[in-house]
Each structure stands twice: as C-alpha cells, then as structure tokens.
Fold Branched-chain amino acid ABC transporter, permease.
Amino acid sequence: MLFIDLILQGLIQGSIYALIAVGLTLVYGLLRILHVAHAGLFTLGAYLGVLLMNQTNSLILSFTISMFLVGLLGVAIYIFCYKPMLEKPPYVALIASIGLFISMEEIYRMVFGAMGVSYKNPPFQDVINLSSLHLKSAEIVTMLVALVLISALSIFTTKTRVGISWRATVTQPQIAESFGINVEKVRYGNFFIGSMLAGAGGVMVGILNNLVEPTMGGVPSYKALAIIVLGGLGNVKGTLIASVLLGVVESFGTIYLGSLLDRDAIAFAFLIIVLMIKPQGLFGSKR
C-alpha cells in the first residue's frame, strides 16, 4: 500500500509541475525564451485566488478570475518585455526575465506583506479514506484540475483550426506566416494560455498549503526549467511526462533517500543522471 500511496503523491506533485511547466515549454517552443518570470505569474495566481476567495467566498469565481487576470499579465509581459527583445541574443531575454521575476517577488512582498496570506475558510480540506489510503480533497481536486485543463489544451491544439495554426507556427513560423497565419496573435494566445495554466497551478498550491508567500515561486521556477529540459525543450508531451516522472521520483526519493538528500536535491540528482545519459532530454531530438 505504501507503493500506491507514493505513486499518488507523485501524481499530485506531478500535476502541479505540469500546470507550471507546460506554459513554460509553450513559450520556449514558440520564441526560444526561458521565461523565468513564469514562476512570478504562478505566485500571482495564488495571491489572486486567496484574496478573491476571501472576498467573494466563491471558489469557482476566484479561480476563473485569477486565471484570466494572470493570462492577461502574461500577454502584457510579452508585449512590453520580450517583444522588443526578439531580435536580441537569447541571453538578453533570459536576463530580463530573471530581473522581472525578482521584481515581482519584491512587489508581492511590499503589497501583500512578507508573512503570507491564507484562506479564511480553506476549501477541500476534508480527508477521504480509501482503504488505508488517506487523501485530502484538495489533492484529488488538484489532479482533476490539471487533467481537465491539459486535456482541454490538447483538444484545442489538435481539433480546432486555431490550435492547428498555433502548432504550425511553433514548428514552422515562416511557412505558417506565408499561409496567412497571424504569428503575432499566436504569440498572444501562447502567453495567455500558458500564463493561465501557471495561475491555475498557483491557486491549487495555495489551497493545498493554505498559505501564499511572496517567494513561493522560487522553487517552481527552477524545477519547471529542469522539467522542460528533462522532457526535451519545447516538447509539450515530453514536459507532461517529465512532470509526472519527477513528481514520482521525488515521492519515492523522500522515503528511501530522505536521510541523505532533501526533496530538491533528489530531483536535480535525477535530472543530472538523465542528462548524462540523454543530453537532449528524455524526449528531445538531437540538434
């Protein structure tokens, strides 16, 4: 039963990683930018979720508005930060993104305080007993939210005309543009959807921990970077698998290697081992 419990904990953690990392890999796939400030959007989603929920007492309303506002801010970041740098070397955008992320953390600290905020009436805190397994409702809801949102993204990109145009722009932007696809609109959509997913991840982590802090995006920022490298840069399917795989590895590692390494060290030890064997990541192609 311990094995199943660890798998479930890995899936829960992997669901959160997936919500964050998919948006990151979407941006990298389209613009070849390592969007570190994506983790700042994750934190903003968590703050909006708890503040709106405490004001409205409606989880659906706070969740929806949080995702939408974070999506808009993601588009604004593209327009005002990355768009003027598209012709510059990639490290320029990377440095700007790191600076933006640090600035966002400081703004959150000044606006919301350094001690963090919590839900007045945290939702989904009851425990569901399944034989000898004990799961919080919030953990189950987190997995369901990730499954629904990523499934919706998959349907959008494979079954709709707009989504197919989007995929074409990611793989062959010049050819897509020659067929009349508005690349700029695709970029807006890319940042909007990717940022919304990060916002959703932030709301769910806020509910799971019942605590939102200015620095809560720190660990996800480098974990998500590790995941998109592990999955193969720009590979959405690889990123999803890597997210779940890393969550499961961490879950087992904390039990069997916890006396030697902490959770984050286990994750990066796993990443280093994989990259020593496959430098292009698990699902990346050799360049």
